[in-house]
Design goal:
It contains 10 helices and 12 strands. The chain is an alpha/beta fold. Helix 6 packs parallel to helix 10.
Amino acid sequence: MPETVCITSLSSTRVKRANGLRQRAKRDRSGLMLIEGFREIKRALTNNHELRELFFCHELFQGSNESELLDTAKQRGAQLCACTTPVFTKLSYRDRPDGLLAIAPKVSHDLSSISLTRDSMILVAEAIEKPGNLGTMLRSADATGVQAVIVCDGCTDINNPNVVRASLGTLFSLPVIDANTGDTCSWLKANDVTIIAASPDAERVYTDCDATGKTAFVVGAEQYGLSTAWNHQADCSVRIPMMGQSDSLNVASAATLLLYEALRQRGS
């Protein structure tokens, strides 16, 4: 295993390369991503996601389990890089860093990697703009046993560091797939998955659609909703009742309600 590298210079090549991965263009070119935080890195390791480099700063650790995490990462081939506080502060994209940041291969799955069962749940998110919303949806998907999350025509890169952060590392706990709407519709139809689209204009309330079989819930951006393609392809369109003056829920909140309704119907 490689020896631990010590980084004391703010102009280190390793530091510059890591900071560059905040930009989508550089993530796309390199095929790499950033993972910051103890929980996020631990979930990556738990789900056997490879780590290439792991930067750490003892002075910023907030718990007592960091050494064990470092040992696990090193045993799995990650290069450990010990940093001074100023160096790690430059590396970190958080207000309160906890002294751990990793470089890893990007998350990359395709539709063929999804293994369906007779009661699989899929979450489809179309044109989601905010990393925080996408990350929150991943947490809800993980909590409800969703088989996969498909991000269609995404405005947000699924490997954005803020998606990793908002998901608390659940990005690594299930397949998250970047695909276009046409391919996703075709795949769902070919696999006999019932498509339930969320629309504020739907006549049926979300509790009225059967979600006990193979089901894909489709949610869209708050401002524009779902595209015409999804509204045409849906087997059922549903709305979430709203009694106040607002005409839309946060998309992550709406997705969470739909997924937990499916659990309720399934007796879970």
